[in-house]
Amino acid sequence: MTIEAARLSLQAKALALSGVREAPSRIPESFTAYPVAITYVAQTDGRRHSYSHATKTHVLATEVHIARQDLGRDVETIQPLMDAFVDAVLDDPTLGGAVASIIGESMITARVVNMEWAAQLTFGFRAEITVLITKN
Questions:
Q1: Parallel, antiparallel, or unpaired for β 120-135 and 53-67?
Q2: Gyration radius of the chain's alpha carbons
Q3: What is the largest CA-CA distance in the chain?
Q4: Cβ density class 26-40: b for 16+ within 10 Å, e for less
Q5: What angle do helix axes 71-90 and 3-15 make, rounded to 10 degrees?
Q6: What span, in angstroms and rounded, lies between the C-alpha atoms of 10 and 121?
Q7: DSSP assignment of the chain, as one string?
Q8: CA–CA separation, 68 vs 122, rounded Å?
Q9: What does the pLDDT read at residue 105?
Q10: Contact at 8 Å (CB) between 33 and 120?
Q11: Is the peptide bond before 28 cis (omega within 30 degrees of 0)?
Q12: How would you write the pLDDT of the chain (136 residues) with one tens digit per residue?
């Protein structure tokens, strides 16, 4: 179980969404095609339970960006992508075995937001998934 495997699993789920054109394994400086998905570790917390057992919780953020053009059309484009991504994560609570489980009161939280990447205004959704990785 590794956080990188979890990140790549989320990237694969985002790339499988209808219409997403890119979900690079390495986070780019700028985007060349839209919609594009990126996933990164937003937060990490660690806890040692005993000498031989520790856990880490990570908050992974997945963002799907579209070029901002017409707000009404942009909302119509991003909403189904967000719903499909949430469903894909809920259907795979170990992210293909990459994590022990997705944890938290909400397994995944997603919101439609105005975004920016490399000084370019975009529109899209940001999902946060808290995962548990155990170390024995």
A1: antiparallel
A2: 16
A3: 56
A4: eeeeebeebbbbbbe
A5: 130
A6: 23
A7: --HHHHHHHHHHHHHTSTT--B--SS--SS-SSSSEEEEEEEEEEEEEEETTEEEEEEEEEEEEEEE-S-HHHHHHHHHHHHHHHHHHHHT-TTTTTTSSEEEEEEEEEEEEEEEEETTEEEEEEEEEEEEEEEE-
A8: 5
A9: 67
A10: no
A11: no
A12: 788 999 999 999 999 999 899 898 888 888 888 899 999 999 888 777 777 777 778 899 999 999 888 888 888 889 999 999 999 999 998 888 888 788 776 688 999 999 988 888 899 999 999 988 776 5
Rounded Cα–Cα distance for residues 13 and 88 (Å): 7
pLDDT, tens only, 64-99: 999 888 888 888 889 999 999 999 999 998 888 888
Which residues make Cβ contacts (< 8 Å) with residue 73, sequence separation at least 6? none
Looking up tokens 């919609």 gives 35
Place of tokens 């790339």: 15
